[in-house]
Amino acid sequence: MAANNSLAGDFLPRKVKLIITQILVMIFLCINLLLIMTFFKKECFHTSARYILFALTLLSDSFLLFMSDILVIWAIFHLTIQVWLCVIICAVLLLYVTVTPVTLTVMTLECYVAICMPLRHGELCSTRSTMHCILIIHGLSSVPCIVILSAFFVSASLSFYKKYQICSVEIFIFHTWQDHLRSALYQFQFLIMCIIIVFCYVKIMKVAKAASGENKKSTKKGLRTVLLHGFQLLLCLIQLWCPFIEAAVFKISFSLFEDVRYFNYIMFYLAPRCLSPLIYGLRDEVFFHALKHYASFGFKGLP
């Protein structure tokens, strides 16, 4: 009887958390879909490297939000699936968890080229180069996924793939060294990205000091964009430490563990992925005017 009361007491907070999560995910997805529609509607965005990369972050973030939300629902209601199917789902999720931060780093480099190497911007950031860059982004982003799953394939028995489990990346971790390998790999990857962002910021800052008039205004805007990219990367980096925090809390209290895990999901999965629309969708004047036009069903004319 006490166990049933405890379960009933726990269910309401879970239901409330689920409702809050669904509302946030739906809001972010609707905003992202509106921005994606704006990108595809206006042809001038299709030839600009920064807008193409921006669209890539929107698509990858929307997909990641949708898939991770499904896993959250399954976890809350304790729904299980066979491990082989979970492997496929998590392989895609592991890829797109990394695609956004790698794309942000590339967008920072594009900003650096536009401000510090304006004469070579057209050559280095052409549409063709951007398409090649998207392939490279996916190639680099797949490295952690390949390493994590390779370690799992070596450790798991064939019978394990037929078992039913609550789908989570944690079910692929059999040994402590696998967890350390995953952490080291992500930390190294994000360290390289942070170095690139700091390098670009310092270079753009030097140009900002020497610039004047309109150039100074444009350069300062570029500096703010790089800073926002850096903040997004910081949130993504903290996300990598969440499993260690959750593991420590799990030993103390399961209910506290669930609360901490929910907080981490909102702060370090959802929040970084709602910043992209703010950075480019609302701060960029050209894109913002196009967005207003399509969001108002054409009543607000394009400039």
Automatic annotation (TrEMBL):
<keyword id="KW-0812">Transmembrane</keyword>
<feature type="transmembrane region" description="Helical">
    <location>
        <begin position="82"/>
        <end position="112"/>
    </location>
</feature>
<feature type="transmembrane region" description="Helical">
    <location>
        <begin position="226"/>
        <end position="250"/>
    </location>
</feature>
<dbReference type="GO" id="GO:0004930">
    <property type="term" value="F:G protein-coupled receptor activity"/>
</dbReference>
<feature type="transmembrane region" description="Helical">
    <location>
        <begin position="262"/>
        <end position="282"/>
    </location>
</feature>
<feature type="domain" description="G-protein coupled receptors family 1 profile">
    <location>
        <begin position="31"/>
        <end position="280"/>
    </location>
</feature>
<dbReference type="InterPro" id="IPR000276">
    <property type="entry name" value="GPCR_Rhodpsn"/>
</dbReference>
<feature type="transmembrane region" description="Helical">
    <location>
        <begin position="184"/>
        <end position="205"/>
    </location>
</feature>
<dbReference type="GO" id="GO:0016020">
    <property type="term" value="C:membrane"/>
</dbReference>
<protein>
    <recommendedName>
        <fullName>G-protein coupled receptors family 1 profile domain-containing protein</fullName>
    </recommendedName>
</protein>
<dbReference type="GO" id="GO:0004984">
    <property type="term" value="F:olfactory receptor activity"/>
</dbReference>
<feature type="transmembrane region" description="Helical">
    <location>
        <begin position="133"/>
        <end position="154"/>
    </location>
</feature>
<keyword id="KW-0472">Membrane</keyword>
<keyword id="KW-1133">Transmembrane helix</keyword>
<dbReference type="InterPro" id="IPR052921">
    <property type="entry name" value="GPCR1_Superfamily_Member"/>
</dbReference>
<feature type="transmembrane region" description="Helical">
    <location>
        <begin position="52"/>
        <end position="76"/>
    </location>
</feature>
<dbReference type="InterPro" id="IPR017452">
    <property type="entry name" value="GPCR_Rhodpsn_7TM"/>
</dbReference>
<dbReference type="Pfam" id="PF00001">
    <property type="entry name" value="7tm_1"/>
</dbReference>
<feature type="transmembrane region" description="Helical">
    <location>
        <begin position="20"/>
        <end position="40"/>
    </location>
</feature>
<dbReference type="GO" id="GO:0005549">
    <property type="term" value="F:odorant binding"/>
</dbReference>
